């Protein structure tokens, strides 16, 4: 029913509040064709949120916004949803949007949800190889199960907090995230920088180890290396993600 059940004063207040939240209060008297695509998308968000519905469905709500505005709008929408106790179902291909807004996130493959979980558990406790590979960045490192809590790899032994419920000597794959690779001038792993992507406060490096294994590493941007530079690193894996090597992807 939109705002039709609101009094005139309530309508004006709801519209003014939502336009201010969306950064559109200075454009209140403009026609739609006078707004940019991003502004029109924010108007659509404001119209959907203003009546404070019990349930809201959003489909790629931030797709036309630039990165800075996307992050700000995401936080504004999240705050509005929580303040007004609005349940929201959002469809998106952007993991950052899903993680920023979602209390629970579902990963779908061919129309089926393969994991429904908190953003934290999706990232740190993926239920299968597909989810582990799909969420975030990382590479899989071959290893072998030495015991119920230890995996042996060519880059060193890795310990797991959780019990690994497979027989000893089972061939496995271990997920190594970029934040698991720590720059350490005394580190035991020698690697060469083959690619770099500057991200402001951090730099994402692609490294090739002396044993010809590719790793992704996320270092603070003051650890500034050029392509071809040699670096020393160590692995510090707090949440070991392990799958049997012959496990199916989904």
Name its key features.
250 residues, Rossmann fold, OB fold (Dihydrolipoamide Acetyltransferase, E2P), 2 domains, five-stranded antiparallel β-sheet, 6 helices
Could you walk me through the main structural features you see in this protein, from its secondary elements to its overall organization?
This protein is an alpha+beta fold. It has two domains: about 10-105, Rossmann fold; about 140-245, OB fold (Dihydrolipoamide Acetyltransferase, E2P). The mean pLDDT is about 90. Strands 7-6-5-8-14 form a five-stranded antiparallel β-sheet. A five-stranded antiparallel β-sheet has the order 9-13-10-11-12, with no helix packed on it. The longest helix has 17 residues, at about 65-85. Helix 1 crosses helix 2. The protein has helices at about 10-20, 35-50, 65-85, 95-100, 120-125, 130-135, and strands at about 55-60, 85-90, 105-110, 110-115, 140-145, 150-155, 155-160, 170-175, 180-185, 190-200, 200-210, 215-220, 230-235, 240-245. The radius of gyration is 23 Å and the shape is elongated.
Radius of gyration over all CA atoms, rounded: 23 Å
**What would CATH call the class of the largest domain?**
Mainly Beta
CATH architecture of the largest domain: Beta Barrel
Low-confidence stretches: none
Strand line-up in the sheet with most strands: 7-6-5-8-14
CATH superfamily of the largest domain: Nucleic acid-binding proteins
What portion of the residues fall into strands of 2 or more residues? 25-35%
General form? elongated
User: What fold name goes in the CATH topology slot of the largest domain?
Assistant: OB fold (Dihydrolipoamide Acetyltransferase, E2P)
**What is the N-to-C succession of helices and strands?**
HHEHEHEEHHEEEEEEEEEE
């Amino acid at each position: 029913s939109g705002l039709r059940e609101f009094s005139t004063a309530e309508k004006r207040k709801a519209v003014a509040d939502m336009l201010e939240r969306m950064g559109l209060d200075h454009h209140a008297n403009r026609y739609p064709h006078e707004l940019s695509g991003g502004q029109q998308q924010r108007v659509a968000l404001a119209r959907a949120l203003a009546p404070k519905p019990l349930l809201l469905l959003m489909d790629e709500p931030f797709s036309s916004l630039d990165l800075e505005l996307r992050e700000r709008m995401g936080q504004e929408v999240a705050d509005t949803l929580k303040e007004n106790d609005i349940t929201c179902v959002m469809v998106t291909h952007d993991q950052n949007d899903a993680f920023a807004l979602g209390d629970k996130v579902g990963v779908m493959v061919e129309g089926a949800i393969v994991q429904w979980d908190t953003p934290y558990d999706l990232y740190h406790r993926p239920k299968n190889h597909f989810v582990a590979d799909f969420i975030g960045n990382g590479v899989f490192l071959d290893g072998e199960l030495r015991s119920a809590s230890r995996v042996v790899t060519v880059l060193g032994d890795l310990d797991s907090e959780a019990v690994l419920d497979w027989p000893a000597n089972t061939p496995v794959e271990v997920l190594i995230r970029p934040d698991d690779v720590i720059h350490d001038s005394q580190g035991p792993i020698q690697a060469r920088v083959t690619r770099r992507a500057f991200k402001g406060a951090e730099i994402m490096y692609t490294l090739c180890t002396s044993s010809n294994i590719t790793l992704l590493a996320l270092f603070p941007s003051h650890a500034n290396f050029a392509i071809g530079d040699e670096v020393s690193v160590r692995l510090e894996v707090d949440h070991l993600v392990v799958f049997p090597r012959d496990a199916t992807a989904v």
